[in-house]
# Entry
Amino acid sequence: MRFTTLLSTALLLGSTGLVSAETLKWARAGDALTLDPHAQNEGPTHTIRHQMYEPLIIRDVTGAFEPALATEWAPKTDDPNVWVFKLREGVKFHGGEDFNAEDVVFSFERAKQPNSDMKELIGSITEVRAVDDYTVEIVTDGPNPILPSNLTNLFIMDKGWTEANNTVNVQDFEGGEITYATTNANGTGPYTLTSREPDVKTVMTRNEAYWGRDQFPMEVSEIVYTPIQNAATRVAAMLSGEVNFLQDMPVQDLERVNAAEGLTVKQAPQNRVIFFGMNQGADDLEADNVDGKNPLADVRVRKAMSMAINRNAIRQVVMRGQSEPAGMIAPPFVNGWTAEMDGESSTDIEGAKALMAEAGYGDGFSIRLDCPNDRYINDEAICQAAVGMLGQIGVTVNLDAIPKAQHFPKITDGKTDFYMLGWGVPTYDSEYIFNFLVHGRESDVGTWNGTGFDNDEIDAKIKSLASNTDLEARNADIADIWRVVQDEALYIPIHHQVLNWGMADGVGIEVDPEDQPKVKYFTMN
# Structure
């Protein structure tokens, strides 16, 4: 059986030989959903695109800003509603086209389209204008002191290439559309796309004309990225030498991999929290057995379900100690997180049963839980554990675990009543969470809010965060919004993820809290 597994892995990766010193053979559980730079705001999707495309600004592994296609940025001295970005000169796209301000203006306009999953990040922007070839002014609806934080995953496309290949419009990912930009790329990044087989393999080659060729190690000459959903197969690939860099390391195999000759596991807390969402807004649910009512509309039921989850048991049994129980849907990295709120979730089966009875559901009900099986660490196993825990208070859960490519549209299209989601916060600020997960769902905001929660007063406060330059007052508003989120039990927080990256001894990189390795920083010894 071991021989069969390793043979299958070798065939999957396309080689049975040892990896070369300059080839990064990289695997993780799932693939990028699309290469279209603006179609999906999803971590692994951004990670692959970061190798080929670039934003104006990136973050290094410490979370600090680092210049990318912009070399300088600051509010305009005589107008606080305008940010001025000085662009890097002499940069070329992979196709040889010159990068200039026209491409930035075009990319921001494209990212604001209805099909874009990036539009919430730039919702405060009213205009992007080219002052000259290498100066761009971004105008916002009121002063926006955190604008740069929203731009680290906003990739710049070449206007001419996009027009020539009929991809001016952002791919309709939820609608199943395939465009040229879905499987092709023309960025300014350190690696060029050689081949793309979605869910099978993506190959990238070092861009010898990259503007940062001499500024970064750039020791990887070729990237072979292979999604391997099965955990045992991923580890077998690592142990056999067919993979020399592995994300989504199965927690049950950490010691085995770390003890293997020539392999190392590096660990760090991740800027991500895992939670369950509940549809409280519908009059009746599609996925339950209660006719004419919505049990999740009652805050007592939502709180009871949260109280039924034993986060410490999930940490110890499912995650093998590789998680931190969460009481709010913000990671500790984020402005607005507090230890007090993060400690508010507790397990109390008897108290949960009492709340269920008080709400009129003493006999319980059944409901479907939608869960991904290739996105988060042990995602399906966490959901399986929750099934048993919720059963203790009479909530019979039917689990439906599917790949993320099918799971995520259920949330954004409003076709799930009870679901798992994970959320990282690249801006390190609560506004990012509120815009996507708390604001009422509209065309350009609240797109991942599957709860049905919609509060005009809270929406107004969320909108004001983008232009409030009074830090004390802004933080007070953030605290007020969090208090509502907590009191209304909009979500069931589960835990903060811990990252484990496996690598061969010759591979040098530190763990990025964003779980977004940028290969230009890698060393290969």
Notes: The chain has 16 helices and 19 strands.
